[in-house]
Write a structure and sequence with these properties.
The protein is mainly alpha-helical and 224 residues long. It has seven helices and no strands. It is globular, with a radius of gyration of 23 Å.
């Protein structure tokens, strides 16, 4: 409308850059998660195989293959399958953040129950309101983000795509508890000793806000 012929190409370049960035992040995060699951015995062990450069190549290929399948799905059924995948991924992200918020609350509860809060070197200034805001806010989003399937008329297909993951996650959680025979660990029983990182003497002071360089590092660390 402004008469700029390059505006469309500029917007396309921005979108493409964003897509590549998001795809790169998803490939890295998915590979790392699949590798970690394999190492911890929660996924087939071959996903934990490393090449000579210490890269979990099987996990990379598996994650990349899923990305290719999802991309191909955008051409199936006039994009209907792609819409399903988008809805499922959206719910997955919210459920992940709910789990992160609950884990944060449980972790701090364990520290408090075992009188180890003073050992926590770095503390998030939003606690406990931040984790609760995440849990409640994301729970609200999970429930309302499928509002479009109710208006103007109810769509059963869209309803399933928005909310099918909720019973699936509950089923997976229940099956894992039954098969692995795990139990809910109380705050007093949490293992807060294994793999605890103990900083070396002076390590925490190396970036102290001394001089303009130290203050700049502290400011950048606070922002990011």
């Amino acid at each position: 409308m402004a008469g700029a012929k390059v505006a469309g190409s500029f917007i396309n370049a921005m979108i493409m850059t964003s897509v590549i960035s998001a795809g790169n992040h998803a490939l890295f995060a998915g590979t790392r998660l699949l590798y970690t699951l394999a190492v911890n015995g929660h996924a087939p062990s071959f996903f934990g195989n490393l090449n000579r450069n210490r890269v979990p190549w099987i996990a990379v290929l598996a994650t990349s293959a899923i990305s290719g399948i999802c991309f191909g799905a955008s051409f199936i059924g006039a994009g209907q399958l792609w819409s399903w995948l988008q809805n499922i991924v959206g719910v997955s992200n919210q459920l992940s953040w709910i789990a992160i918020g609950i884990a944060s609350l449980r972790f701090r509860a364990g520290l408090k129950a075992q009188n180890k809060t003073h050992l926590l070197t770095f503390r998030n200034f939003t606690y406990p309101y931040g984790p609760w805001a995440v849990v409640l806010g994301c729970s609200f989003l999970v429930l309302v983000q499928g509002w479009s399937c109710f208006s103007p008329v109810f769509s059963g297909v869209d309803f399933v795509s928005y909310y099918i993951e909720l019973p699936i996650m509950l089923l997976m959680f229940g099956v894992w508890k039954v098969v692995k025979r795990t139990r809910w660990v109380s705050a007093e029983e949490m293992d807060l000793e294994t793999d605890v990182y103990l900083p070396e003497e002076g390590e925490l002071d190396r970036d102290a806000a001394v001089g303009w360089k130290g203050k700049a590092r502290a400011t950048i660390r606070w922002i990011f």
